[in-house]
Design brief:
With 396 residues, the chain is of the alpha/beta class. It folds into 2 domains: 114 residues, Aspartate Aminotransferase, domain 1 (Alpha-Beta Complex), CATH 3.90.1150.10; 235 residues, Aspartate Aminotransferase, domain 2. It is globular and about 60 Å long. The chain starts with 13 loop residues before the first helix and ends with a helix. The model has no long low-confidence stretch (mean pLDDT 97). The structure holds (2S)-2-hydroxybutanedioic acid.
């Protein structure tokens, strides 16, 4: 049976990491996968996570199954993080949330849920979007289409193009929006633009799906949720996929959440029964360890405060690195304007290099970027930024 298979190419993001590991050049720099690194190039376990794990080790009573929805405490704490404690959807009891295996698990569950709502559903994703969005939704059987988003020439947002396209989507379609820290462009909507998108969503009637993979990595936990909370205030139905990989540094623990908002408490209970069924037939129930860590942190004043600090440190380093590379490129004689990097948000920006130049950076300088020239901003430090800027200058 396997004879009929043809080998697939390596994943455009994860495949880079394999090449990087094999590279023996001591100067090599990994700007590929979106994993936070500190000044020393490590991805440490957060202190608050270590303490929560310690606590868990001594207090955990059982490894028995939980349920397809995961831990109720994690779910309710996540709902407060996503919406803020006083949001109207919580007061009106119109949100249901389940724990999922990472943000990707949430997206896949959302995709299958959408398919259950409408067997020929279309989901619109930004052009460009995270390389795995297309695959996840196509695998769930959805039609995937794109709306304009990033203006490569002007290194800015094509907001008019985006808004005009959203006005034309079908009322039963789903539109995926990156809640903050757009992956791969780093180009986010401002508050006024979110308001316009919310108006269009209400007028057209499409269902927004908010991908919230980086809450706290942009300007802060509250500001990063601005557009999401506004949309949740404006529309009747919405889907949210969250990840705890980046903001809690729990990448390999695979913990995220899928939230649905319905028009009423009764309507969302019915929808939730379908969501739980979807989870049950894919993976039965989510892993528990990551959820236990997050709920322990979020329910302890001490650990929560420590987490805020550690999250701020990560965010500040990324924002500092944005300015650093812009300054270093100028210092090393690059005349092309890269100031867009310091205006963007989150883990990524496009350098705006051609695929050949990206390849040259890899072949000649052991600098690893995704082919689109997406750069993971946390991947360099004060120690190697000069080498990075010089190498970019050379390929330019
Ligand atoms: C990325 O975009 O690099 C991250 O979200 C990691 C991944 O799974 O692709």
């Amino acid at each position: 049976m396997f004879d009929s298979l043809k080998a697939l190419p390596a994943d455009p993001i994860l495949g880079l990491g394999i090449k990087y590991k094999k590279d023996t050049n001591p100067k090599k720099i990994d700007l590929g996968v979106g994993v936070y690194k500190d000044e020393a190039g490590n991805t440490p376990v957060l202190n608050c996570v270590k303490k929560a794990e310690q606590h868990r080790l001594t207090t955990e009573q059982s490894k028995a199954y939980i349920s397809p929805g995961g831990s109720p405490l994690f779910n309710s704490e996540m709902a407060k993080l996503i919406f803020g404690a006083d949001h109207k959807v919580l007061a009106e009891d119109r949100a249901r949330i389940i724990s999922t295996p990472g943000g990707t698990g949430a997206l896949r569950v959302a995709g299958e849920f959408i398919k259950s709502c409408k067997s020929d559903a279309t989901i619109w994703v930004s052009n460009p979007t995270w390389a795995n969005h297309n695959g996840v939704f196509a695998a769930a059987g959805l039609n995937v289409k794109t709306y304009p988003y990033y203006d490569y020439e002007n290194k800015s947002l094509d907001f008019d193009g985006m808004l005009n396209a959203l006005k034309e989507v079908g009322k039963d379609d789903v539109v995926l929006l990156h809640a903050c820290c757009h992956n791969p462009s780093g180009m986010d909507l401002n508050k006024e633009q979110w308001q316009q998108v919310a108006e269009v969503a209400k007028t057209v009637g499409f269902t927004p799906l908010l991908d919230m993979a980086y809450q706290g990595f942009g300007t802060g936990l509250e500001d990063d949720a601005y557009g999401l909370r506004l949309l949740a205030d404006t529309v009747e139905e919405m889907i949210i996929c969250s990840s705890c990989s980046k903001n809690f540094g729990l990448y390999r623990e695979r913990i995220g959440a899928c939230t649905i908002i319905g028009s009423s408490s009764i309507a969302v209970d019915i929808a939730n029964s379908v969501l739980l069924y979807v989870a049950r037939v894919i993976y039965s129930m989510p892993p528990a360890h990551g959820a236990a860590i997050v709920e322990t942190i979020l329910t302890s004043d001490e650990l929560r405060t420590e987490w805020y600090g550690e999250l701020k440190d990560m965010r500040d380093r990324i924002n500092g690195n944005r300015k650093l590379i812009v300054d270093k490129l100028i210092e090393h004689g690059v005349t092309q304007d890269f100031s867009h990097i310091s205006r963007q948000m989150g883990m990524f920006s496009f350098l705006g290099l051609s695929p050949e130049q990206v390849q040259q950076l890899q072949d000649d300088y052991s600098i690893y970027l995704v082919g689109s020239s997406r750069m993971s901003i946390a991947g360099y430090s004060n120690d190697n930024v000069d080498y990075l800027a010089q190498s970019i200058a050379k390929v330019l």
